[in-house]
Amino acid sequence: MNIKITGSGSYIPTEIVTNKDFSNHVFLNEDGTPFPLPNEVITEKFYGITGIEERRYASDDLLTSDIAFIAAKKAIEDSKIDPETLDYIIFAHNFGNQKKGAIQADLLPSLATRVKHDLRIKNPKCVAYDMLFGCPGWVEGVIQATAFIKAGMAKKCLVIGAETLSRVTDPHDRDSMIYSDGAGATIIESVDGENEGILAHESATYAYDEANYLFFGNSFNKDHDPDVRYIKMHGRKIYEFALSNVPKAMKECLDNSGIEINQVKKVLIHQANEKMDEAIIQRFYKLYGQTPPEGIMPMSIHKLGNSSVATVPTLYDSLIKGKIENQEIHKGDVILFASVGAGMNINAIVYKM
User: Fold this and answer.
1) Residues 6 or more apart from 315 whose CB is under 8 A from it?
2) Which residues contact 133 (CB under 8 A, 6 or more apart)?
3) Judging by beta carbons within 10 Å of its beta carbon (0-12, 13-18, 19+), is residue 125 exposed, middle or buried?
4) pLDDT tens-digit series, residues 193-214
5) Which helix (H) or strand (E) holds 214?
6) Cis? peptide before 109, omega within 30° of 0
C-alpha cells in the first residue's frame, strides 16, 4: 500500500514583524528585573542564535481556524479531490482560537469541526478532531492518517497544522521573538505505485523528566495579571534534549525504511532554531560517519520564524511549489521529515516522492 501526500496548501500571514520592531520592548529577567543589555544587542544576539530576521503574525481579524481553512482549501484544490470524500480531518494545534488581547482560548467546537464547517462538507462520516502534540503535531497527524488508511478505516485524510503563537507570548520575555503564526495542510491518501510515499515513521514522548520543558507561565512583568499565562520554555534544556534525542530517532526511522543515508535528498525539520537544526543535522549524519551534503536542509525560519505545528507543512508546501531559493525536489526523491516539541515529543517520517 502506497500512502502519499497528494495535495498541499499553506497560509503565510501578511503582517511582517522584523527584529527592529522589538526595539521598544521592555525585556525583563524571570524575576522581573530589567535585562541589562540594550535591545539592539539583544536582537543581534538573538539573530546569531536563531537565524530569525523577521516573522509573520496573523491579522487581527483572523483566528487559527481561519488560516487553517485557507490552507486546507488550497490543499484540497491542489489534490483535486472532492472534499465530501474525506474520511478524517486531523487538526494539530496547541492553543485553540485565541483572539488578540483575549485571555481565554476558544476550543468549542473543536477547530477541526470549524474547518469542516467552513469547507461546507456535509458528509457526517468525515470525522473531524483536534490533536495536541506540541510542535510535532502535523507530523504526528500524518502518522495517524497513515494508520487509519492502513487499517482500512480511511482512504483520504486532511491533516492540518496551524497556530497563532503571537497571541500567547509574553512581550517581556526575549523568547517571544522566536514565535510566529502560520498554517499548512496536506491531503493524505492511498495511491497506486511501487515503494513510494510513507516508507517508515517513528514517534516518542519523553515525559519522566522532560514534561515541563515547555509550559504555560506568568509574565516576567510582575505587575501583570497572574491569572494570565504565556508560553514559556527552558531553552537550554530543550536544546540539549533535541541534540541528544532527535538524531537518534531520525536514524531509527531511516534504518527501518530500508533507505540508505546517501539516498536522502532533503531533510525537512521543524523550524525551531537555526543553530539547533544545524546541530541536529550534523549529529544525524555523524551517526553514519558522514557530513551533511550541501543544501540538504531547506530553511524558512529566517523570514517566517517558528510557527510551531505549521513549520513543517508550510516548508513542504513551499519546497514542492518551488518557492525556496536554490531548493527543489523531484519524483522519486526521498525526504526525511522530523520534529520535536512540547511533551517532549519527537517524530520522524521517511517519504519517497
Assistant:
1) 184, 268, 271, 298, 299, 300, 324
2) 92, 140, 141, 309, 341, 343, 345
3) exposed
4) 778 999 999 999 999 999 999 9
5) strand 214-217
6) yes
Q: How far apart are the C-alpha atoms of 283 and 57, rounded to whole Å?
A: 32
What are the angstrom distances between the C-alpha of 168 and each of 44, 114, 120, 216?
23, 21, 30, 9
**Within 13 A of 249's CA, how many CA atoms are on the CB side?**
24
Give the span between the Cα atoms of 333 and 117, in whole angstroms: 36
**DSSP type of residue 154:** -
- Single-letter amino acid code for the residue at 53: E
Distance of CA 23 to the CA centre of its chain: 27
Q: What is the phi/psi pair of residue 163, to 5°? A: -160, 150
Q: Residue 1's pLDDT is what?
A: 79
pLDDT in tens, 37-79: 999 999 999 999 999 999 999 999 999 999 999 999 999 999 9
Cell of 250: 531520525
Convert the pLDDT of each residue in 310-344 to its tens digit. 999 999 999 999 999 999 999 999 999 999 999 99
> Could you give the angle at the alpha carbon of 310 between the alpha carbons of 70 and 300, nearest 5°?
110
Neighbours of 276 (CB within 10 A): 22
β-pairing, 156-164 vs 88-92, is: parallel
As a whole number of Å, the CA-based R_g of the chain is: 20
Peptide bond into 233 cis (omega under 30): no
